Amino acid sequence: NTTFALNLYSQLATNSGNLFFSPYSISTCLAMLYAGASGNTEHQMSQVLGFGTNQQQFASLFGQLQKELGADQQTNAIELHIANALWVQEGFPVLPSFLETATNQYQANVGQADFVTEGDAVRLEINNWVAQETRNKIQDILPPGSLNAETRLVLANAIYFLGAWTISFAETSTSTRPFYLSSTNLVKVPLMHQSFWIFDGDGNEITFNYMDNWGGGYSIPTNGFQAIELPYGSNQLSMVILLPSQIDGLGRLEQQLSPAFLSNVLGQMRPNTVEIYLPRF
Known about the structure:
Blueprint: H1 2-12, H2 23-34, H3 39-49, H4 55-71, E1 78-89, H5 96-104, E2 108-113, H6 115-133, E3 153-163, E4 175-180, E5 186-194, E6 208-212, E7 225-232, E8 237-244, H7 250-256, H8 259-268, E9 270-272, E10 276-279
Parallel strand pairs: 1-2
Antiparallel strand pairs: 1-3, 4-5, 5-10, 6-7, 6-9, 7-8
């Protein structure tokens, strides 16, 4: 999943502007599709997505991952909801083994639809499903005309996440400060703030997992960066942020991204006292 996520990121990052996507959603839909692939299609999907060659074993492992992610919200500190669904054209022959894998491993809802004569009605049904599963955050995911008489199968994945920081940002600590959009473009935005010396209710100093590759001395390398892990809830899930040391260093940092690079960053993180400024969101 990480390999696919970063490979896809490298492709999407060639476009200018901000980028936000959910590689796990894409992986899940393609993983369900992979369960029914054979021949050249199976080989190419395995190669590009890194799914391995044993379809049944892969489906079992992917299903186990989804169950573990679902169990992470049992602490009630976070809400992580993952849902899968398939709509199959009425009368279209589908192998029972494929539907069994989708139902058992991916907990997918499977329904029949008539794309030929009721394409737009099915589109609205799918849009309503996505809206419901994402607490109305994603609306009208399928535009008019996207389903027609040629459609045979629609696979959908929806993820909804709502998490409270383990160590929250005080609203009173948010202030308007400069934020660089580029080396020459500066705007003022509200920044959340977490100061250096903060303590929990028992008087213990609060730390965050942190690393930087600046090394010693006074010079900051052009490809340098900092990384921090901000946990949610009881620390089962977290947000990892990579920040280039140079204002215009994002492109150079993106070029370094790989599973080995990310694993190395996470492995080098150590508890540290850190002062944090983040754009409010």
